[in-house]
Amino acid sequence: MVLSFKSWFANEGGKHFVLILWLGANAWLFLRTFLTYSTGQQYYYLYKMLGLGLCISRASASVLNLNCSLVLLPMCRSLLTCLRGTHTLSSRGTRRLLDKSKTFHVACGIAICIFSVVHVSAHLVNVVNFSAFYSEDLPALNLARYLGEVIPGITGVLLVVILFLMFTASSYCIRLSNYEIFWYTHNLFIVFYIILMVHMVGGALKYQTNVDTHPPGCLRPNQSSPELQGEELEPGNEERRCKEEARFHPHYPQTWMWVSGPLCLYCAERFYRYIRSSDPVTIVTVIRHPSEVIEVRMLKRDFKAHPGQYIVLNCPGVSSFENHPFTLTTCPTEEKETFGVHMRVVGDWTERFTELLLPKTGVELEILPMVQQRRYPKLYVDGPFGSSSQEVFNYEVSLCVAGGIGVTPFACVLHALLDGWKQFRLRRLYFVWVCRELQSFYWFSELLCALHHKLWQENRPDYLNLKLFVSQTEDLQSMSEEKYRPLSSRLSIGRPRWKLLFDEISNANRQKHVGVFCCGPKGISRTLHKLCNSGRYTGVTFEFNKESFS
């Protein structure tokens, strides 16, 4: 597929610019530190003892310091949400870069793992060299107490073990099969940073403090060199003599200077989020939908959110330490203060949460009086947090593609349009929803029909271009109810023909930027991403946005 530079730059330019800056900073730090330890006079004797192991270990440590500080910033969700909401300070391109915060977090994590391996390997060589090249002339420089002694670093071993657990538990297969393992091991980062701050306190590596009076390589008063025999009294050779013995001082720890700022910022945000989410919400309504989906509507004092944002739920009755993100499907408004989420019952947490919310009698709808709300479990809400779906309204034309339960970010968008579409910049919305089962469309069937009727009454039927696709053809039934006729007429069997859809959008919206938003399987996302960068569409730029939770 031929790429369009204009489309590619719109979708990938900012991301690759940040990537180049990040790689450049890592390379510059590594090279600068390597040269400092290999050519610096204060490290002459230490380099002579340890060799390249010293340079590589310290250079990789500099890169680790940088990435251990940067890896925390993408996890400051409230800060990123605030930056996203400040339109006067951030352009649309900058806000789209914030959507890559999770990717940047993963990139920093991978860099930490790679350079940790390099750092540990270099230090293993250093430990061997400390033992093999024990210096009797410079006892203060030695780490070993005698020739042949090997001293392991306790803090280094602990850091490697913690990092190994965090890295392996972050793999996709473990997160998919047992999210709890990922969650608990990832919270070991607290212990990781505490040990990291004291990692260099032992002072294993030392630098020379009296380079002026003891130039590196000079001869001590009781030492002679074959090169200077017969020439020791010549004035020019007096500079080769040491005026005093070499003095060494442990290297000053620098890690805390790198990580203390981001760590304090992250801790401050977590404290703010803890205070904000300390009051439990009131569960107003619980609805069981087809295809193992439940809807929870809640009420919380002074809770405000925008369409496209998501919240993090914590139910102590299920687990006090687990937090799970869910996109808001309804936001509070001036007329209605409740907000809600739809969640698919998949996995241990959602199954146990559903058992607490609904009895096993199969009740389809349960709306309890306020005095009986104690039947529901205690539930805490953290958020809301920003996501890419908030940008739907910032384009004149947007294409929203949902796969199954991935429709939830766009349900809140549809609710906002139902309340009043004229207040937004958006003038045309293409909405594509792909489901395996026909029953899944009933999750938001009434919402889609209500929006369809509203736009027809206001003489704007072309505002919403709705396309529904059901991929599973076994035991297929139709939406025969009269009230769902607007949906049944737009229902197709099979999968969307994405190229034809993009051709249609391109021909109808010349010289415009079209926002493409996707929340669904990776196969759909990859196809849309390639089409957005394709060069077959002239006169229109497709800007790709993918939903991703931090």
UniProtKB/TrEMBL annotation:
* BP GO terms, sorted: defense response; superoxide anion generation
Question: Per the annotation, which location comes first and is thus the protein's main one?
Answer: membrane
- What ranges does the record give for the region Disordered, renumbered to this chain? 216-236
The answer to keyword DNA-binding applying to this record is no
Which gene codes for it?
A: nox4
- Originating organism: Gadus morhua (Atlantic cod)
- This one is known as FAD-binding FR-type domain-containing protein
Q: Which residue intervals define the domain FAD-binding FR-type in the entry?
A: 276-391
Entry keyword set: Membrane, Oxidoreductase, Transmembrane, Transmembrane helix
**Where in the cell is the protein located?**
Membrane
How does it sit in the bilayer? Multi-pass membrane protein
